[in-house]
Design a protein that fits this description.
Layout lengths: L4 H31 L6 H17 L5 H24 L7 H23 L15 E3 L2 E3 L1 H23 L1 H11 L1 H6 L4 H23 L9 H16 L4 H21 L5 H15 L14
Antiparallel strand pairs: 1-2
Helix pairs in contact: 1-5, 1-6, 1-8, 1-9, 1-10, 2-3, 2-4, 2-8, 2-9, 3-8, 5-6, 6-8, 9-10, 9-11, 10-11
């Protein structure tokens, strides 16, 4: 019996939204694995990515593809600066120090964004001119397909980078044993800077990809970061495939909760799913051995 087109539409929408959460969660995981820090400012880079992409498109007239590429580059540079200015001065601190410093950085970025772009909610132009694809009764937003395609491409490139390049192997070695990597000559500080740059570039990319689907405002980073953190726990702490799987679960749960109930239920239902995992599978979907960490 064929699946009702409405359910296929909901699944595609849930996969797309979940991919955004998964991308932000992927940024969490890269930093957790390499420098053992939870960057609670990660969601704010999605917010900055949305505003930077909006500026490149509106103020400079860049097409969506160039705005996306420009945002990735700018957020990557900001990520390297984040490592130098926020993480590195406090790298020898304890968990509480890192927690407070990244939360403070999130507040600073939010206030800087409000000063630069103002508190108004803005709309991002639709790169596909609001066209909807129709396949035998199935209506699909092309932006959802773009998000899915970009996510698959990014994950493939990330795995090639981590497992097929020298820099990637150095990052994996640092993730497995930071002190041993330092003893054999790895410049751990540079590895951390590369990791922050990659992580925050991914967050910025997610911000541009999701901007046409929702309004661009200052609150989007906090909400996305919170859902990505939930996805990180559900998927398994420190697991790259787990981050994506957790994000997709959260996205699907939100979409179906909104469809069957109202939008007001999507956040409580996501937290309910988190509680279920914490009770019955606290280690998450994927539990990687130390030697397998990426």
């Amino acid at each position: 019996m064929p699946l009702d087109p409405i359910y296929l539409q909901l699944i595609i929408q849930g996969l797309a939204i979940g991919s955004i959460y998964g991308l932000v969660a992927l940024g969490f995981v890269l930093i957790i694995n390499t420098v053992n820090v939870v960057n609670f400012a990660q969601g704010e880079f999605l917010m900055l990515g949305s505003f930077i992409g909006l500026t490149l498109s509106v103020s400079f007239g860049a097409p969506f593809s160039l705005a996306l590429l420009g945002t990735i580059v700018i957020c990557g540079i900001l990520g390297a600066l984040f490592d130098r200015a926020i993480y590195r001065p406090m790298r020898n601190g304890d968990f509480a120090t890192h927690l407070i410093s990244t939360l403070a950085a999130a507040l600073i970025m939010r206030n800087v964004a409000q000063h630069v772009w103002g508190p108004e909610v803005r709309s991002y132009y639709e790169p596909f001119d609001q066209r909807i694809l129709s396949f035998d009764g199935l209506l699909v937003n092309p932006q959802h397909l773009l998000i899915l395609g970009m996510t698959v491409a990014l994950v493939a490139l990330l795995y090639i980078f981590l497992f097929r390049t020298g820099t990637g192997r150095v990052m994996r070695a640092t993730a497995q044993d930071r002190e041993t990597a330092r003893l054999i000559g790895v410049r751990v500080g540079n590895v951390g800077m590369i990791t922050f740059a990659m992580s925050l570039a991914i967050g910025g990319m997610a911000g541009v990809l999701v901007a046409p689907l929702f309004l661009v405002d200052l609150n989007v980073g906090f909400l996305a970061g919170l859902k990505a953190f939930i996805a990180t726990i559900i998927g398994g702490w420190g697991s790259i495939p787990g981050a994506l799987a957790g994000g997709i679960i959260v996205g699907l749960v939100e979409v179906f909760a909104t469809h069957y109930f109202t939008a007001a239920f999507k956040d409580p239902v996501a937290f309910a799913v988190l509680m279920i995992f914490l009770i019955f599978r606290p280690s998450g979907l994927f539990t990687e051995r130390v030697g397998e960490k990426a």
